[in-house]
Amino acid sequence: MITIEDGSQRLQQLIAGWRYPEPYDFYDGDPEPVLNPERFFEARDEQGDTIGFYYFEPKPPNLDYGLGLRPDLTGQGRGLEFFRAGLEFAHERYRPERVFLHVAAFNERARRVYERAGFRVVSAHVRSFEGFGAVPFVTMIERISVRQLEPADVAAVDRRLPLSRLREPFEDSSTYLIAWDGDQPVGHAHIAWSGTHMALPEIQDVFVLPAERRRRIASELTRAAEAEARSRGWDRISLSVSQTDNPDASRLYEQLGYVDAGLERVRVSGEILIRGRPFYVDDTLVYLTKSL
Ligand SMILES: CC(C)(COP(=O)(O)OP(=O)(O)OC[C@H]1O[C@@H](n2cnc3c(N)ncnc32)[C@H](O)[C@@H]1OP(=O)(O)O)[C@@H](O)C(=O)NCCC(=O)NCCS
């Protein structure tokens, strides 16, 4: 467990004394007072020892995120947990649309951690530092993140997305996965865990906001559903798609490795109720499946 609190003068003094082995001496503490001490936060472990700092610079609606693990704790595989703790704190406190990282290009160790946490390089630039000269940097931003729908998020998600399969109170027999772009919900997928056509977990109600399509969001949602099914011990998953009327979705699932389950086509015709409202449907569904 990492706890995070506002930075103090004492934190600045600690950081000023930190020395990293080459080539990371670029990050050595500086005895000069920092310009914006209020942007620094202190991370402590269970024993209360300072294990690093976080730096958050709001650039509305976004946020720049920087961090430093105490030098003697680097190179021990602790980076990802440290990074994620700061990221979670940043999301809760600042609610940014997007989180940006600016990383020295040579720092592949840090870049690997950020990539594992779902960040991608989007651009490159050069910064000048006294004593180091021109240093190439890359900017990384958080890719779409997929999380299970929580009761507290229903109102915000419901304003933007159909949530056609929503049932309240939540039931254990299903899960809604929401794709977030920063703090904006941009897509969803529902997983039914029981009572399904193929007696397998079934992905339903895959939907991405029209303006956000072709950004791999549906692919991310489907992969997240597969990962959740796998973690619950399933080795196969299913879904259905219109036989002729939804070529985009058919292509999506084909690209993700779904194959025809070989079952009889299912005709759905007539009025159905979606969250209490009647809709007329006339479609023929093909069931697809994928081994996990
Ligand atoms: C179908 C849907 C979920 C796809 O969402 P998406 O986020 O745009 O999908 P992705 O970006 O992950 O697409 C992955 C692949 O699917 C295929 N695909 C998706 N949309 C496509 C389109 N408009 N034209 C052609 N291929 C398309 C492509 O193979 C694409 O890969 P590519 O971009 O490398 O070519 C979205 O269009 C949607 O919400 N439609 C309305 C609801 C719906 O039909 N749901 C599916 C019910 S079964």
What would your notes on this structure say?
This protein is α+β, with helices and mostly antiparallel strands and 292 residues long. It contains six helices and 15 strands. The chain has helices at 9-16, 79-94, 108-116, 154-160, 217-231, 247-255, and strands spanning 3-6, 40-44, 50-59, 62-69, 99-104, 119-129, 133-142, 145-148, 174-181, 184-192, 202-208, 236-242, 259-260, 266-274, 277-291. The strands form two sheets. Strands 8, 9, 10, 11, 12, 13, 14 and 15 form an eight-stranded mixed β-sheet that branches. Strands 1-2-3-4-5-7-6 form a seven-stranded mixed β-sheet, with helices on both faces. The mean pLDDT is 93. The structure holds coenzyme A (COA). Coenzyme A is lined by residues 206-208, 213-219, 241, 246, 248-249, 251-252, 255. Coenzyme A (COA) binds at residues 206-208, 213-219, 241, 246, 248-249, 251-252, 255.
